[in-house]
Amino acid sequence: MLGLLARVVLGGVLIAAGALKVTEPDVAARAVQAYQVLPYDLAATVGHALPVVEIIVGLLLVVGLFTRVSAVVASLLMLAFLVGIGQAWARGLSIDCGCFGGGGQVAPGQTRYVSEIARDLGLLACGLWLVRRPRSVASVDARWGGRAGDVG
Amino acid sequence: MSKGSGKPTGGAPAGTAAQRKAKVQAAGSTSSSGPSRVMVAAVVLVVAIIAVVVVVVLNGRSDKPSGTAVPTGAAGMGAVWVDPASRGVTGKPVVTVYEDFRCPVCKLVEAGVGPVLRRLADEKAIELRYGFKTVIDSKVGGHSSRTAASDALCAADQGAYPAYHEQLFANQPEEPNPYTDAELNALAPKAGLSGTQLQAWQRCADAGTYDAYVASVEDTSFQAGVTGTPAIYLGGTPVNWGAYTDQTGSSWDTTGFEQLLRSGTVPADRVENSLPTLKD
């Protein structure tokens, strides 16, 4: 049951985050640029691609298809987000993570780094759990009868 | 579902896991007849890659409008635009206003010190420049900050920039609403355009003539660190305009602000520390 819970929480959040951003590509691009990590144009491309990747990985997790590979990708995403938010905090940038749309610069007093990091740590825990134990009830992997780790 | 399959996945001995697997298979597995996992994985991967590529290409186009028109008064793509009244003015304090027509605080500042800026520019007491930003487009979506600025430059081509500029702020939609094209069109006659001038403005606006230029100014200024609006620079120094108003932005020390602009230098206690110093 814990596996199912981890799938639905992590997958659901990824789908929501992706869906809220995919319709506003310019906003998503600016949100990534605001982290000031990647070169300006590359950051825009990452901003455009990220919502699509989030939705796909989220869907795979929710239905439980190729759970292990999906969980690896989702965990790497969470790690990247944590590094991004952490470096922004450490460098004294005042940005919104832009995780669910919006993003970009905010007033110095309006950052929410602690809650953003706590949330992503929780989601990372879900991902790592599924990497270690990809098999779970109510998943396509299970219905397929193969071992969830075989391909996915 | 059998009772056993609902148990936690952690810590189950191998035997139990195998039993559960057998039960799951017995409960309606399609493993023998359906497509292989490798096939499905390949299809999912290909679909995912196509989806990402298509979205990236389409979005890249919407984000970066094509077009090469640079308005009269700007030195090139990415360069700020010199107000018509300030063309040819030299040796005067250079005031650069970075603004977004959709930004509510910009409207507030415009109402407070806009008339001072306009008067000093018309008197040739300052060299007034504008950097058109699209901060709200980037925060809440849409492109109407960009369209509004492009349309304002179209109005400048017809000699009606100050009036159209004023109309834009006077009719600013409430955040997060955008300006509609119909609203922007309706402002042109209100700004005093009519006849062939209005037709020329309309052609310029319909073509999104200066969209690419406005986008280039946003990109250049963002990369220089001017990420928010409004930002007012005196020379290369950002001005803390908040020091010239009260908490609500309803009353302004316009006399003090005018003295500051005329002096050409920003005292240390009036420098906006959240913004970078720029060249020039």
- Rg of chain A, please? 16 Å
Approximate helicity band of chain B: 40-55%
Large-scale geometry of chain B? globular
Q: Largest sheet of chain A at a glance?
A: 2 strands, antiparallel
Secondary-structure element series of chain B: HHEEHEHHHHHHEEH
Alpha-carbon distance between the two ends of chain A: 19 Å
The order of strands across the largest sheet of chain B is 1-3-2-4-5
Low-confidence stretches of chain B: 1-14, 26-32
- Give the strand content of chain A: under 5%
Q: Which structural class do you get from the secondary structure elements of chain B? A: alpha+beta
- What's the SSE pattern of chain A? HHHHEEHH
Poorly predicted parts of chain A: none
Total number of helices of chain B: 10
Instruction: Average the pLDDT over all residues of chain A and give the rounded result.
Output: 93
* General form of chain A: elongated
Quaternary organization:
heterodimer
Number of strands of chain A: 2
The structural class of chain A is mainly alpha
Q: Largest interface, per-chain counts?
A: A-B, 43 and 44 residues
Which sheet architecture does the biggest sheet of chain B show?
A: 5 strands, mixed
